Amino acid sequence: AAPKPMKAQAKLVGDIISKPPILANQNISINEASKILIENGINHLPIVDENKNLVGIITSWDIARAVAQNKNSILEIMTATVISSTVDEPIDVLARKMSIYNISGAPILDKNKKVVGMITAEDLSKLVGIRAKL
Amino acid sequence: AAPKPMKAQAKLVGDIISKPPILANQNISINEASKILIENGINHLPIVDENKNLVGIITSWDIARAVAQNKNSILEIMTATVISSTVDEPIDVLARKMSIYNISGAPILDKNKKVVGMITAEDLSKLVGIRAKL
Ligand SMILES: C[S@@+](CC[C@H](N)C(=O)[O-])C[C@H]1O[C@@H](n2cnc3c(N)ncnc32)[C@H](O)[C@@H]1O
């Protein structure tokens, strides 16, 4: 039988996160943050405190901002008010949230507010390719 | 009547590009490229020659690479083999191409190979939110 069209409404954020998240502490330097982004081929780095609680996010755009505006510390370029999601949020709700807040990624939190993954616009845009095939 | 589900197959890249592209010349510095990204709130900067032909692309990830690896010139961090698209390419084909090549954006070229726009993973991920509403 032909595959059924995917129901977007049924798909949850938890269905498409896979990797353990790459996280960093807020004491790192801009150079160290850049290295983490490059070595892992990623654009988003959630920043956590000693208890692994989310305190901010650094993206490669923030690194470009540091270069453009001669900022020298993570705290100057980090976004502290992080738009996040949970594993049980429908993917389309997260997609709209990312669109409304004009962000390219969101850390995914579990019930205890620990970061368990990241979802980026790249992850979501892959769904466009998949759906169109059905 | 209720809106019909959007047919992904029918949608072309040209249907979702709107803004004129922000472009730069390859003679700019890394600092200037960073400023263009930040002032325009973008992550991708197609690089063109005097004749407006595409010669590369710079993203904020490349700026992070310059910071991580102490690179000092655009030519060192620019990706010269650019994956591009055309206004008449179906959106889902572009989405798969971006996924396969692990890129987060593609310059859109017209028949004369001039850059007429950019499509990013963020643009595509907005479609996930829209489709899910139907
Ligand atoms: C391999 S990705 C890794 C990070 C992330 N996946 C992303 O796309 O931003 C980053 C590299 O892709 C390159 N890139 C982005 N868009 C491109 C395109 N349309 N064609 C070729 N290379 C591109 C950038 O210049 C950068 O060096």
UniProtKB/TrEMBL annotation, chains A, B:
Sorted keywords for this record are: CBS domain, Repeat
Q: Does the keyword Thylakoid apply?
A: no
User: What is the protein's given name?
Assistant: CBS domain-containing protein
Per the UniProt entry, the signal peptide is: none
The species this protein was found in: Methanococcus aeolicus (strain ATCC BAA-1280 / DSM 17508 / OCM 812 / Nankai-3)
Top-down, what is the taxonomic lineage of the species of origin? Archaea, Methanobacteriati, Methanobacteriota, Methanomada group, Methanococci
The CBS domain covers which part of the protein?
A: 17-74, 78-134
